Amino acid sequence: MRKYKDVVFRYALLGWCVAVLMSCQQTAPRTDQRNGTYVAEDSRGTKVALKHPARRVVVLFEPMVDELYMLQAGEAIVGIPEQVYQHASSYRFLSKLDERIARKEIATPTYGGRANNVESVIGLRPDLAIVYEQDKETITQLEGLNIPVFAVSSKNKQRIYSELRGVATLLGKEQRAAELISYVEEQLKKMDRPTHGVRKKVYYAWSKGRVLSTSGKGSLMDLSIEAAGAENACPLEMEAPNIGAEQLYSWNPDIIVLWNSSLNDVYDLKELAALPAVKNKEVYVLTPTFNFDPHTIKFMLFAKQLRHWCYPEESAEELEKEIQEALDTLYGNTKGEA
Description:
The protein is an alpha/beta fold.
């Protein structure tokens, strides 16, 4: 009988402890992201505020990993998407900046692609998480656990700049962000072309051989094409239209640009063999892709390379040197070859 009473008592005590814990969790005050010294507005229009610069940052959007190193704040990173290790171009470059990446020591709290493991994020004890704005479930879960979240979209030039400034503010790197944006704007002005000149038409093809998938007006690719002084051959106001060969012939681009694809992905397509850009061998590949990521301020380098293909005014060797100098400036003269 006594043994039975002991068991009952233990279960009652356990139940009471669980109830207390649940009560504490429910009544614990939620962190107010609007109160703090370091305040920035993210892509949702949400104000995020920290009492001190973020010291432990989980970055779940790969382009922002890159930009934190440009901000010279890489030491604050404690979590990254696994794509950083999987993409050879990114890994090769960033491993020269951070020995932790070279040894693959920075945690990857993701399941693959953009699927995030929230439990793993919590385990990293971040004081800031940078998340792609479309990952709404992740954002909701993290904010529900009192982890400040700065959402990013990188959907256009204004967003790229404002998000860079915002993240820099939360990291105490405002001056560095101002220097980077000023430098990019200076480089863009050097690429200005007279509006009355004939502009080359550029067709951009998506990665992995998706030649008949492109980017329309208002996209990041369109931003880079316009910055190069050229014109997007795709006139559609769509982010990612799929087209037919006949449509491409009707647009008749002067140049075709590929991303993470090979020249043979175009040259082996019999239906495009008679396209003037193909016949004239005006098909080019942006490589290494890391140097030209249009989701970051390196859209400027995308434009610089494209401008050379459209309006060659210097040798390929001179351009390569110019791009290397730009990378040295963007990363603070601390990088290795990509």
